[in-house]
Write a structure and sequence with these properties.
Layout (H helix, E strand, L loop, with lengths): L7 E5 L7 H8 L10 E6 L1 H11 L4 E5 L11 E6 L15 H19 L5 E4 L4 H6 L7 H8 L6 E6 L2 E5 L6 H6 L3 H17 L6 E5 L14 H15 L3 E6 L1 H9 L5 E4 L2 H12 L4 E5 L5 E4 L15
Parallel strand pairs: 1-2, 1-5, 2-4, 3-4, 5-12, 7-10, 8-9, 8-10
Antiparallel strand pairs: 6-7, 6-11, 11-12
Helix pairs in contact: 1-2, 3-5, 7-8
Length: about 325
Amino acid sequence: MERTTLPIIGISMGDPAGIGPEVCAKALALEEIYGICRPIVVGDAGVMADAVRFCGLDLQTAARKRVAEALFTCGTVDVFDLANLPLDRLRHKQVTAEQGRASFEYVAKVIELAMAGEIEATVTGPINKAAINAGGFHYAGHTEIYAELTRTRDYSMMLAEGGFRVAHVSTHVSLRTACERVKKERVLTVIRLAHEALRQLGIGAPRIAVAGLNPHCGEGGLFGDEDDREIAPAVEAARSAGILAEGPLPADTVFSKMRGGMYDLVVVMYHDQGLIPFKLLHFADGVNITLGLPLVRTSVDHGTAYDIAGKGLAD
């Protein structure tokens, strides 16, 4: 692919107090990145320059006011500079409203650029949910920000690495609320979103497992009836539509089956059901993908790591 036709990727650098800026800096120090895309960081040029400094990288940073100004050359990090956090206000490891507001504005701008067609995909660095809420933006996380700003009704979070993938019926809600959200239509929606995503990834006939909610999928109603009442009908509807879905399947064995190659993805009913097995195996290399959006959004699958932020230790 010609260099000038490589996709332009907008990277929101995440909470400036966390490890997002230094992860961006270290990634963009790799020459091979520029062989697959044209990256531009959306954030604060001063904060990015500081991350380059304390990481000891041989890089320059260049503040840009428009994507069209970027040169996309390895050795210089192009930064779409919002200039909304002066470096003397940077407080590593701390939750502050100012830093939360800045991190939200990075995300909003990268979405705006993608929706306007100025960039072709987005990548998000980690944000701190307490900080963005302190800054006046009341969202549970990136997924919900993207859904609202792109006016997307049906969406889901997928975590992926190689052949190990999970898609969620619910994510950042209480466990009680998560159980209440296990409804036929929502489960079916996530199965459909997952099926389409796998097709887009080049899997011709995706095999989708659907995890049960209760132990042993309710054991015929002994441990709850949601599996029989809500999940099973959703799976049957998906199968009637030509989707290769199976379930509900006991959550204590279904991930081993996927790892063994029986399935391409597991639809899970709530946050920890999918995240615990995924992060156990792929904490360092997992990718978060939001399904159902009118644009591409991927992310690291880790947090701001305040405990090591500002030290240049992040991988």
